[in-house]
Design goal:
With 292 residues, the chain is of the alpha+beta class. The chain folds into 3 domains: 96 residues, wza like domain (wza like fold); 77 residues, Roll (Outer membrane lipoprotein wza fold like); 108 residues, Outer membrane lipoprotein wza fold like, CATH 3.10.560. Helix content is 24%, strand content 28%. It is built from 8 helices and 18 strands. The strands form 5 sheets. The protein has a 6-stranded mixed beta sheet, with helices on both faces. Strands 7-6-12-9-10 form a 5-stranded mixed beta sheet, covered by helices on one side. A 3-stranded antiparallel beta sheet has the order 2-1-5, with helices on both faces. Strand 6 and strand 7 form a beta hairpin. The longest helix is centred in the first third of the chain and has 17 residues. The radius of gyration is 29 Å and the shape is rod-shaped. The N and C termini lie far apart (67 Å).
Length: 292
């Protein structure tokens, strides 16, 4: 009896080391079910049905989809006890083969597609399989878990320690989506007008950061009469005064921008009146986009 218990603990420990608790059983997976002290109930290469059930030799069909192997083992133990087949069953479940062994990587990666993985991998590992992020990628990515509606956010930080955080793992069958980063525009009397992607480590830009990226304002600019154009709804825009001069002098707090915002720095009072909100939107739509 002591040998049987020791064998169970060794096998269970091995299974736990091989089978991460974050990896869930799904329809089509091939399982190995061991009932210790009752070898005649062992089932090798038994497949989970399309509805997520596992047919047992005794105990009927049990629902195991979306459970970890350890949780599935407890469900099988309960079925054996409830059916009065085994008084104190000890069950171990391992996944021999996953029906879906690919992860889909979509969006702003260099080579989007489906990639084969056999075990859970880190987010960075999976992104590496897809060639890494493009220059237009947003750092706020989303992981959709296989077989569930669960959406797990992950932030690809420039900080190495934060980026290598192993708390979010990608499992076989998961989908990883990398959206395009937001773009903000600075037009008018700056050294390099155009659109700039919000690809810094915070995935956002402030007014002063945007103007700095554009090389700063020219000597002929009138920053005290700068304007901010922001989209409202499907087709509307609001235009507000932006005290850029006071921001540059530290007299007023910097302001964070939203994707699609347009900062306009006038050349002179005459040209300032010549270009209004609708003209700024049209200019922004044809502006060059800078990926830094």
């Amino acid at each position: 009896m002591r040998k049987a218990i020791l064998a169970f603990l060794l096998i269970a420990g091995w299974a736990g080391a091989q089978q991460p608790e974050s990896l869930l059983i799904g329809p089509g997976d091939l399982l190995h079910v061991q009932v210790f002290d009752t070898p005649e109930l062992e089932q090798k290469d038994v497949r989970v049905t399309d509805v997520g059930e596992l047919p047992l030799i005794l105990g009927g069909n049990v629902k195991v989809a979306h459970l970890t192997p350890a949780e599935a083992a407890r469900v099988i133990e309960k079925a054996l006890v409830d059916g009065h087949f085994v008084l104190r069953p000890r069950v171990a479940v391992t996944v021999e083969e996953y029906a879906t062994q690919k992860v889909s990587v979509l969006g702003e990666v260099k080579t989007p597609g489906a990639y084969a993985i056999q075990t859970p991998r880190s987010v960075l590992d999976v992104l590496t399989l897809a060639g890494g992020l493009t220059e237009l990628a947003d750092r706020k990515i989303l992981v959709e878990r296989r077989g569930t509606d669960e959406k797990v956010p992950y932030f690809v930080s420039n900080d190495a320690k934060a980026a290598m955080d192993a708390s979010v793992r990608i499992n076989p069958g998961d989908t990883l989506y990398v959206p395009k980063a937001g773009i903000v525009y600075v037009l008018g009397d700056v050294k390099q007008p155009g659109g700039y992607t919000m690809t810094n480590n915070e995935a956002q830009l402030s007014v002063l950061q945007l103007v700095a990226r554009a090389g700063g304002t020219n000597n002929s600019a009138v920053p005290s009469h700068a304007r901010l154009v922001r989209k409202t709804g499907d087709s509307g825009y609001t235009e507000t005064a932006l005290q850029l001069s006071d921001m540059q002098k530290g007299k007023q707090s910097d302001q964070f921008l939203q994707p699609g915002d347009i900062v306009y720095v006038p050349f002179s009072y005459m040209r300032n009146f010549a270009l209004q909100g609708s003209g700024l939107v049209a200019s922004a739509s044809s502006a060059a986009i800078y990926k830094f």
